[in-house]
Amino acid sequence: MTSERIVRTTVAATTVFVVTAVLGVAVEPARPVAVAVALVLFVGGAVGMLAAVVVAAGRSRTDSIGIGGLFFLAGVAPATVRRILIGCFAAQSFVGVATAIARPYSTAAFGVLAPVGGLAACGLWAAKHGQFGPRN
């Protein structure tokens, strides 16, 4: 995946999640769709995190890779990329928690799983495109 494709896919997934989560709180017929989107982001994110760790492990022979850089893009990504990807992760986190609070003990609680997708996107971007320092 190219750098631009990871960013675009993350923005699109975040947009779909936000729209479906809010609709799921407001309109009962939208709830199954909101659950499905949240679960896709969770499962896709789990797979993406595993892929990020595998790619980062391969790079760790020559690059000094830290968790802050790998999953939070600290010092390894251009400001624009970091702002977009961390912003998507933050939006997923906020909307997931807010919708779960708005409808406690309902399917809206699945929304708290979605930020795994945003965090995985950060990890994948960093593992593939991050500018890590050389290993000592």
- Biggest beta sheet attributes: 2 strands, antiparallel
Structural classification:
mainly alpha
The gyration radius over C-alpha positions equals: 16 Å
Would you identify the regions where 5 or more consecutive residues have pLDDT less than 50? none
The share of residues in extended strands comes to: under 5%
Q: Distance between termini?
A: 29 Å
Shape designation: elongated
Tell me the number of strands: 2
Averaged pLDDT: 97
Number of helices: 5
Order of helices and strands: HHEHHHE
Helicity range of the residues?
over 70%
Query: Strands of the biggest beta sheet: in what spatial order?
Result: 1-2
Please sum up the structure shown:
With 136 residues, the protein is mainly alpha-helical.
Spell out the key features of this protein:
136 residues; mainly alpha; two-stranded antiparallel ribbon; 5 helices
